[in-house]
C-alpha cells in the first residue's frame, strides 16, 4: 500500500487496520456486491479545526462506523458494537502522517433497518489529530 501523507487518510487506514485485527467481522470502506452479513463499514468523517492561535494544527474528527447484520433481532449488532468499542476506545493509534492525540468512542446505537430484515448498528468515534 502506498505511503499515506494526509492525516485523514492515515487515520482511516489505522482504524481499518486496528478493527481488521481486533473484531470478528470484516471491515470495509467500500462493500462489494453480494457481501454476506455481518460486517462493519467505515462511513463519513466530519472534521473541524481546533488549532491554537500558534503551534501545531489540531483537528477534531468525528468518524461514523456502521454495523450491518441480518441476524434476527439486535443481539449480533450489539455484540459487534461492543467489539468495535473495545478495539477503539482510548487506544493509541500510530498514524503514517500526523498523530492521533486522543481517540474515544462517544456513542453506540442499534436499530432495525427500514427493510424489516436487516439490523444496523452505529459507533461514533471522536479523534483529535495533530500535524
Task: Please name the defining characteristics of this protein.
131 residues; alpha+beta; STM4215-like; DUF3168 domain-containing protein
Quick rundown:
This protein is α+β, with helices and mostly antiparallel strands. It is 23% helix and 39% strand. A hairpin with an 8-residue loop joins β2 and β3.
CATH architecture: 2-Layer Sandwich
Strand content: 35-45%
**Model regions low in confidence, pLDDT < 50 over at least 5 residues:** none
Count, helices: 2
Mean residue pLDDT: 92
How many whole angstroms does the radius of gyration measure?
Answer: 16 Å
Name the overall outline. elongated
Helix and strand topology:
Blueprint: H1 7-22, E1 27-28, E2 39-49, E3 58-69, H2 75-88, E4 99-112, E5 119-130
Parallel strand pairs: 1-2
Antiparallel strand pairs: 2-3, 3-5, 4-5
Could you characterize the architecture of this molecule?
- This protein has a 5-stranded mixed sheet.
- The protein is built from 2 helices and 5 strands; from the N terminus they run αβββαββ.
- The protein is elongated and about 55 Å long.
- The model has no long low-confidence stretch (mean pLDDT 92).
- It has a single domain (7-130), classed as STM4215-like (2-Layer Sandwich).
- It starts with 6 loop residues before the first helix and ends with a strand.
- The chain is an alpha+beta fold and 131 residues long.
- A hairpin with a 6-residue loop joins strand 4 (99-112) and strand 5 (119-130).
- It holds the Pfam family Tail_completion_gp17.
- This is DUF3168 domain-containing protein.
